[in-house]
TrEMBL record:
One of its GO terms (biological process) is L-phenylalanine catabolic process. InterPro entries: Glutathione-S-Trfase_C-like (IPR010987), Glutathione-S-Trfase_C_sf (IPR036282), Glutathione_S-Trfase (IPR040079), Glutathione_S-Trfase_N (IPR004045), Thioredoxin-like_sf (IPR036249). SUPFAM superfamilies: GST C-terminal domain-like, Thioredoxin-like. It comes from the Bacteria. This is Glutathione S-transferase. It comes from Phenylobacterium montanum. Residues 1-78 form the GST N-terminal domain.
Length: 204
């Protein structure tokens, strides 16, 4: 399999870390949707990161859909989605909050980096940052003990996506991810970032 996209994207990074945790071999091709547009388009014409080229040559897009496919390939005991219905429901809730945090952070980044400063729409930024803070508050509330896992007795997708989301915001918009405001979330993400699968998939 070949994973296309830069690890500074939280969506690409969550897939890469998940592949490592599942023990699924893959080739990383870090192409930027901006700097390498034509090269990316030659593999995935929509130029959406991440894109996964399967062993069958099928190109999949969207991190959630890619992870759904990878779950079918995960060896026994390496799935990142809990089977227990209650744990599964909790996992979906947490992943939804973390993905919302990623989405709102990306919107803030694009607003600042792609729109001329004179045309920044402050009401829109205020709304988006408010949604981001609500997502982080929701994640903070879901973390009982930062030294424990969120949905079971081992790391799973809710853990991965939560840590990836927090680290992405801290890296791109540190003023919007204050560890003092979300101490359990900050401590939880810091613990996961020390794991080999995270260290081998650096954001920078």
């Amino acid at each position: 399999m070949k994973l296309i996209g830069m690890w500074d994207s939280p969506y690409v990074r969550r897939v890469a870390i998940s592949l490592r945790l599942m023990g699924l071999p893959f080739q990383a091709e870090q192409l930027s949707v901006f700097r390498n547009f034509d090269e990316f388009a030659a593999v995935s014409p929509v130029v959406k990161a991440p894109s996964l080229v399967t062993d069958e040559g099928v190109v999949l897009m969207d991190s959630t859909l890619i992870l759904e496919h990878l779950e079918r390939l995960a060896p026994a005991g390496r799935s990142l989605i809990p089977q227990d219905p209650a744990a599964h429901l909790k996992s979906l809730k947490i992943i939804g909050l973390a993905m919302a945090a990623c989405e709102k952070t990306v919107q803030v980044v694009y607003e600042h980096n792609l729109r001329p400063a004179a045309k920044l729409h402050e009401p829109w930024l205020e709304r988006v940052t408010g949604q981001l803070q609500c997502a982080f508050a929701g994640l903070e509330a879901e973390i009982g003990d930062p030294a424990a896992w969120l949905t079971g007795d081992r790391i799973q997708q809710a853990d991965v996506t939560t840590a990836v989301a927090w680290t992405f915001t801290r890296f791109t918009q540190p003023g919007l991810a204050d560890p003092a405001a979300y101490p359990k979330l900050a401590a939880f993400a810091s613990r996961l970032e020390a794991l080999p699968e995270f260290r081998d998939t650096p954001l920078e």
